[in-house]
Amino acid sequence: MVVSCTAEGPRxxxxxxxxxxxxxxxxxxxxxxxxxxxxxxxxxxxxxxxAAAAPDDSSASDPxxxxxYTTAAVPPGPVHGQIDWPxxxxxxxxxTAQHLLxxxxxxxxxxxxxxxxxxKEISTIDLAAPSVVPRQLEAAExxxxxxxxxxxxxxxxxxxAQELAESGIRKKVDREGILRAIExxxxxxxxxxxxxxxxxGQAGLILLRKLERSRDHWRIEFVAGYRALTAARGxxxxxxxxxxxxxxxxxxxxxxxxxxxxxxxxxTSAVKRLEERLATLEAHTLLQQNPETxxxxxxxxxxxxxxxxxxxxxxxxxxTAERNVIALLASRESGHVVAARSANLTQDxxxxxxxxxxxxxxxGGGAKHFAQGALPDPSQLDAFITGAKSRITNS
Length: 395
Prior knowledge:
Layout: E1 2-8, E2 11-16, E3 33-35, E4 38-45, E5 66-70, E6 81-83, H1 85-109, E7 113-118, E8 123-127, H2 134-149, E9 154-159, H3 161-167, E10 179-184, E11 188-191, E12 206-214, E13 217-224, H4 226-246, H5 253-289, E14 298-302, H6 309-319, E15 325-330, E16 336-341, H7 349-358, E17 363-366, E18 370-374, H8 381-394
Parallel strand pairs: 14-15
Antiparallel strand pairs: 1-2, 2-5, 3-4, 3-6, 4-5, 7-8, 8-13, 9-10, 10-11, 12-13, 15-16, 16-18, 17-18
């Protein structure tokens, strides 16, 4: 029953006399769905509500504190509401799995959960622990899945904080009044207002995906239910594709990747050694083609074929190791340019290069003795070289 509907900007604020929509609370996102023909885009627990009395899987306590934001007006009176069930089921699987995982870390290692976040694709818990190592993740994952596979009942209990504490809850709460708790038979009892499964088996499977340090805690990323199925299928597809590209069996992918990395390192080292030798030979040839004249500066212009920015810089370093050399090098393929001078000279080639590039909307910079940049249009290279040469000569 719609009690009230008021406009709030582009949305409408709808209050019902009872509701099955879960509001954002306790790390769990709100439900989506419809009220009549209107889309429900957000559900919040308004001031005065109680997260401990949030809706369960079928109804809500204190519904007058639950606000439904819709895309259209919903007239007062009876209304048919429909929850986005796949989204609700997903949230139930993740939240119930979180209870199980948190209980497993307590049971096995005494690590309490200090926060929980249910995201669109992954969920996380933060543990208060001195350290968490891979073997502990594996043990907690296995223990959680044991409870899932046993298909234990998940029950809703109500009681005061004292009554729940006497019955053995995992985490103490300071709220007053009647509280709601989720009990997983023989394994966990925890105050919670979120939506949960009827049995642990409905969670399907839990997979722990990532471990990282987060401030003073350890954050664990996990997926459960259909999310776990999607993640496992995605991992298998990635592994299969990698095996195909490496021409090896699935189990040999890590070894194949390690081999490729080692070969790439060796090839990179070999290429660097060859570039070093080539730059030495090319510098020697250019210096011979531009013989030294006593008291004069040698301006060396060159456009080595297929030269990248790194090679141009290396060649410029080789050339300016000699005295009285100014080198202006460029790549016709990429438009990269490098300007450098010998240490005994005083010209500011960095300023000269920047001014020359600016005429062609190019960008670059560097120090007085060495600078580099790039032309947006390599076809303008000859005009650029003419201008830069003129500036260098005048300097």
